[in-house]
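INFO  loader      accepted 1 record
INFO  loader      residues=252
INFO  predictor   begin
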Amino acid sequence: MTMDARALIVCAAMAVAAGLVGCFAVMRRMTLAADAFSHVALPGIGLALVLRLNPLLGALAALLAGAVLIWAIEGKTKLSTEAITGVVFSVALAIGSLTATGEELIDALFGTPGSVTTAETLFGLVAALAVACFIFTARDRLLVSLVSNEVAIASGIGVRQLDLAFLVAFALTVALGMRYLGVLLMGSLIIIPATVAKRLAQSIDAMFAIAIGAALASTLLGSWIAGLTHRPSGPVIVVMAGGLFFLSLLKS
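INFO  predictor   done
INFO  writer      dumping tokens
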């Protein structure tokens, strides 16, 4: 199925957000947690289907709730983000499997390409813009907190609030990709282009540019090939991103 102009716009917005968020996810060593976090959307999708609502609404609500829950538990227990995300992911996946079954579950896991509504297009643009604005305005604070939380706190940076804001931005990015990659594969688009950029970039600005470029190339080329071959777009997009990663290995 070929994609219309609005679908391409949403895909491009998704790729930009994924590239930006992915850079800090990789630098924060959240690669495994990033993939697991996307599965938190599944219970919300199942509930939305039961209530006959747009699955995107359920996914977004579940992802935002998951972000706040992970942030709250991390602050109270001092457990790692990866460990907490793993627990929340496991419970969410089990609940989602009970609430969404059959073809609906497959669509939620791997995405459903095709035309998008005006509301979905508007959400995609607004959410991607919000994520990009946050990353660029909070870039220096995020970098300082990566070096040392103690230094960040001494510099007057609200580390806890910054962590929550990043998790919310991550949740919005996953919600952006639910339609085309599904909850099973969206984490891959966040992590793989950023990993490519980390290998090739010489500065943080270059890392942003390469990650966005790799995510855009994977998304647009993958969507085009999927349309030609009548395959689900999500797996093809991830294969394209994986190809770019292996090409990056040619650099010594």
